[in-house]
């Protein structure tokens, strides 16, 4: 492992998750290296457009070059390229906004596609949004089908609390993951944003692994009140199954439906 590259990557991660503006001293303390070393790394990153220095404060922010890299990642993301049409189908079927997401190394779900709610007013695109896995139905649906060792690490690795409804008890969350494995979908009730809920199902690739998740997000009263909750859950699960088959997953990945 190249130490300088690792340190540069940590600087970018700190700016993306702890920023948006950090000075040399703050970054040096966070990554545990000397200020001259951090300053040299920042100068190199700045020359490549990966960070920029703010006038007036001398603090650093992420650079514009990262945007083109992010767009390039999305363009090569197989799940996203296959999910566009299916996300639109799910949005039309449920009347709600649809997110498609993958899990990053930090334990957050990353939104790689966002289909707007049909026949609605102004909506803000959430493409690129990052949310702790335990506060999202997408995260729960995806993690519920990960290998046990990875799942255990996520449960024991610190659970985020974004609202008073966020589930931070590992045992309770493990029970929710088992429920998602049984039914094929996971629920989130105001655990990320007050007033909002989500319903999501995992999406599998040709190897049979969970490649991501697809789900709907919207006001809690529209998503979780019966009989809409059950109707939406079936729609999400159906579309996730069809998307999985388009990605090459066999019928053997289907869950045991008990609801």
UniProtKB/TrEMBL annotation:
Domain IclR-ED, residue spans: 65-249
PROSITE patterns: HTH_ICLR, ICLR_ED
Alphabetic keyword roster: DNA-binding, Transcription, Transcription regulation
UniProt keyword Kinase, yes or no: no
InterPro entries reported in the protein's UniProt record: ArsR-like_HTH (IPR011991), AsnC-type_HTH_dom (IPR000485), GAF-like_dom_sf (IPR029016), HTH_MetabolicPath_Reg (IPR050707), Tscrpt_reg_IclR_C (IPR014757), Tscrpt_reg_IclR_N (IPR005471), WH-like_DNA-bd_sf (IPR036388), WH_DNA-bd_sf (IPR036390)
Record keyword Protein biosynthesis present: no
Domain HTH iclR-type stretches: 2-64
Stated name of the protein: IclR family transcriptional regulator
Protein species of origin: Streptomyces tanashiensis
């Amino acid at each position: 492992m190249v130490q300088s590259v690792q340190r540069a990557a940590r600087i970018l991660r700190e700016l993306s998750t702890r920023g948006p503006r950090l000075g040399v001293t703050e970054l040096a303390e966070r990554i545990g290296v000397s200020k001259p070393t951090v300053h040299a790394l920042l100068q190199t990153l700045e020359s490549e457009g990966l960070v920029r220095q703010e006038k007036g404060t001398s603090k650093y922010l992420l650079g514009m070059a990262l945007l083109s890299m992010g767009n390039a990642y999305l363009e090569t993301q197989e799940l996203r390229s296959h999910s566009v049409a299916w996300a639109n189908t799910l949005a039309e079927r449920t009347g709600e906004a649809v997110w498609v997401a993958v899990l990053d190394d930090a334990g957050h779900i990353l939104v790689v596609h966002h289909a707007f709610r049909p026949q609605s007013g102004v909506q803000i695109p959430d493409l690129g949004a990052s949310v702790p896995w335990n506060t999202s139905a997408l995260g729960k649906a995806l993690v519920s089908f990960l290998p046990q060792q990875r799942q255990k690490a996520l449960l024991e690795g610190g659970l985020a609390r974004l609202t008073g409804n966020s589930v931070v008890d590992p045992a309770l969350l493990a029970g929710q993951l088992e429920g998602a494995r049984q039914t094929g979908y996971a629920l989130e009730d105001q655990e990320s944003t007050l007033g909002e809920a989500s319903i999501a199902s995992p999406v599998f690739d040709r190897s049979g692994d969970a490649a991501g998740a697809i789900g709907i997000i919207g006001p809690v009263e529209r998503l979780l009140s019966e009989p809409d909750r059950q109707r939406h859950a079936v729609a999400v699960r159906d579309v996730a199954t069809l998307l999985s088959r388009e990605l090459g997953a066999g019928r053997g990945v289907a869950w045991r439906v008990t609801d």
